[in-house]
């Protein structure tokens, strides 16, 4: 479904601080699979994730989604592609403080001009499914780590994207919550979604629910299947 | 279209929720902004109202007034002067005017007593025509209660109210009492055939200077006041109008500087991050800018409305209390004067463009910069 071809990413290109974070990545990511990028800190996992998800552009190389070239798209169309295809659960969740859980969940739907009531209904249904409907009116700064993550998952799914992107989703969770997360993700796969995440958490690599682990080191792949 | 509206509504709702989060900071911002607009709008409304008053006064003023001077002071003028200047060519009409001030010891009020130039306008004997607001200002028990004026202790003259004058000008009508000539002379114990001054109307305004010169030769002791001179006096009085325009410009610049600087100096780290998050989860640059325009629009338009409404109340309901010192010289003559409410649409529009637009314009650049940045920073 997603095809990464010879992708390189150099930060601060042409300057003394130039740093090559990705160095010739070739990768096919299967539809409806759970793919995990593993590797030590600084190996380029987050960078690869953001290029795949149309969050950033590669310095060279191509990214195709369902055969559509997205790596050369101008910003406006890249946003459209990102909006249509991906939902995000960030490492630090990136919920907007001061707003309620429901308001946060509705954010991706806000500029789409959809029916507000229908949006809210969908959001509540998803919060219900994730077991935090009771917190819908609560401000996000009062949530625990696990609740905040589930609010972030609900937000990522509000526009019904086919692909869920999660960066180090279990980094701040205890073992039980990490397993809860994997259960939620399996549920999403059962809904037909594709899940791509990064993790340096061995509990994740070893989990049954994971279809494929992609190892990275210094911006390159050293693949091993799960 | 409905989707566009829904989108704008959703963005506006988000903006309100976002503004509510920093309630104290945003309320403070709104209040300071509203205060600047309040000062500017007060000055504008006040100047406009005064100018309107002056126009009304001037429209009613005769082209030339002849005053008798005795030892350099304005004194009564004998009526035979009228016959003397009657022969001068170009003079359309000559009328002796009777007017004066009366200090009412009973309640400490000042009245302007006057005989209308047109005898048909004069009230019948024993009656008075009074200015519209006089009953209110003088606290008369009911609107057409008789007016009792006391000139000397033990002496009380009664005038029944013939009618109330409505005038466009509060300055003219507030403390006005019109009497007929016989009553006026009796009340002030004036001999027949003297007048307060003499009013001329002139057929051709271009001849005014010549006529004034001729009269000056004829009556070396007289002071001649032309309408132009009155106008100039008013202009002097209102020369601070220009000052107000400077104030207006200055205050808007101030508004511009305070609020624009706050925004133009760059968004706060929190705001920048928030924009990054919104972009990362699928908002495009246009969505972010539209949302921030709502924010700026709500703040600046809210401040504009608040400031303008307060200014209107200040000037017209509270008699421009904060400008009292500017009015001091004036209020000796017109002790209780309320301005006629009025709004100059053009000035309000100018005020709007001078205050709201600069704010919006100044905020757009940093917002645009933040909104076009790559969103992948929020992944870190
Ligand atoms: N915006 C940036 N500017 C410069 N260097 C960056 C930037 N983002 C990441 N890097 C560098 O790129 C390398 C890969 O980072 P990242 O993709 O975050 O790795 P990981 O997620 O595996 O820890 C690191 O050395 C990091 O310091
Ligand atoms: Mg990372």
Structural class, from secondary structure content of chain A? alpha/beta
The helix-strand sequence of chain B is HHEEEHEEEEHEEHEHEEHEHHHHHH
N- and C-termini, Cα separation of chain A: 19 Å
Name the strands of the widest sheet of chain A in spatial order: 6-7-8-3-9-10
Proportion of residues in extended strands of chain A: 15-25%
* Number of H/I helices of chain B: 13
Gyration radius of chain B, in Å: 30 Å
The structural class of chain B is alpha+beta
The count of strands of chain B amounts to 13
Describe this structure in words.
The complex is a heterodimer of chains A (226) and B (380). With 226 residues, chain A is of the alpha/beta class. Chain A starts with a strand and ends in a 5-residue tail after the last strand. Chain A contains 7 helices and 10 strands. In chain A, strand 1 and strand 2 form a beta hairpin. Chain A has one domain: 3-Layer(aba) Sandwich (Rossmann fold). A 6-stranded mixed β-sheet of chain A has the order 6-7-8-3-9-10, sandwiched between helices. With 380 residues, chain B is α+β, with helices and mostly antiparallel strands. The radius of gyration of chain B is 30 Å and the shape is elongated. In chain B, the strands form 3 sheets. Chain B has a 6-stranded mixed β-sheet, with no helix packed on it. In chain B, strands 1, 2, 4, 12 and 13 form a 5-stranded antiparallel β-sheet that branches. Chain B has 2 domains: 200 residues, no CATH class; 119 residues, Barwin-like endoglucanases (Beta Barrel), CATH 2.40.40. Chain B is 56% helix and 17% strand. About 2% of the residues of chain B have low confidence. At the A-B interface, helix 1 and helix 2 of A face helix 1, helix 10 and helix 11 of B. The complex binds adenosine-5'-diphosphate and magnesium ion (MG). Chain A: InterPro entries: AAA+_ATPase (IPR003593), ABC_transporter-like_ATP-bd (IPR003439), ABC_transporter-like_CS (IPR017871), ABC_transpr_LolD-like (IPR015854), MacB-like_ATP-bd (IPR017911), P-loop_NTPase (IPR027417). Chain A: Pfam families: ABC_tran. Chain A: One of its GO terms (molecular function) is transmembrane transporter activity.
